[in-house]
Amino acid sequence: MEKVQFRAYAIDFSAADYDTKGLPPGVKFSHTFVTSPNYDWNCFGHGKDSISQATRLQSGTGSTYEEWALEVYGQYWGTNYQDQQHAAAGVTVRVNGVCHNASNRILALAGADVSDADGDAVVLLMYGKYGFGIEEYIQLVKNAGEKANVPDEEVNAVVAKIMGEAPEEFEDLEKELLRQHFLDHLGNQGIGSDQLAQMQQAYAKFEEQRATIYQDTKSNNPDITTFQGQFTSAIKPELFNCLTEMMEILGQEKYLDLFKLHPEMAAQFLLG
CB–CB of 54/9 below 8 Å? Predict the structure, then answer.
């Protein structure tokens, strides 16, 4: 078993075969996917079939074992699985993440991510870097590593990278990592300290609303389609309000530079 190169790509939603839903000129939001020599990790949408329309992400190149990635991603890879009902790397669209999160779950094995993709900031706000269910994802990585006979030290190194600075025994690991991923991203954007503090407050309020709505929806034990409808319907106005508050804090120009989409359009793209 040898490591091979994994590469991430982004396709602008204004590409010819995507419905732009009225995307204004110059404003971008991307679908992401990952490739390796023998696999097409298409993350619910276009993959290798659309490389000619895609941009290769500098942040998304690294090397790992395809056997490990396959155990993490699951069987629903390639152009036959472009619907949004099949899970990819434990992510189900509009349940616990979107294509950026599924891409990051595979790329974590290779020490890479899709942070260069347009729209990544709004995905981090809504779903974090790896989507919801991070503890289950970490266990998936460990189990997959064991099945693929990946050396323990390599598995442990990937798990440590996923967890960042959060200790494994953290009382609410998922909440901490979701917060950490979004705020770390903000910290790299040159935002003033006063504005950053206000954005942190806006995020904390949204974070509590999101967690409550997610758990309330989950407690009803709905099927996937029902969950998608109930959760997105309930969380969409809260996401819109959070992004609107952040636009008021930053001003429209800086807000669009960071999030790429106006609040209403961002909520529409992420949640339908």
Answer: yes
pLDDT per residue as tens digits for the range 132-178: 999 999 999 999 999 999 999 999 999 999 988 666 665 688 888 88
Residue 133: both structure tokens together: 């269910």
The span from the CA of 167 to the CA of 105, in Å, is: 19
Give the domain range for residue 81: 4-271
**Helix locations, 34-172, DSSP H:** 66-73, 99-107, 120-127, 134-147, 152-163
Q: Which long-range contacts (CB under 8 A, 24 or more apart) does 31-35 make?
A: 31/99, 32/8, 32/57, 32/60, 32/99, 32/100, 32/103, 32/114, 32/117, 33/8, 33/9, 33/99, 33/103, 34/6, 34/7, 34/8, 34/9, 34/60, 34/103, 34/106, 34/107, 35/6, 35/7, 35/9
Contact 100, 40 (CB under 8 A): no
The whole-number pLDDT of residue 18 equals 46
| Residues 85 and 47: beta-carbon distance below 8 Å | no
Whole-number Cα distances in Å, 199 to 5, 77, 128, 205, 247: 37, 37, 16, 10, 10
pLDDT, one tens digit per residue, over 5-58 is: 999 999 886 544 445 444 555 556 789 999 999 999 999 888 998 899 899 999
Q: What is the mean pLDDT of the chain?
A: 88
How many structural domains is the chain composed of?
1
Which three-class secondary structure state does DSSP give residue 91?
strand
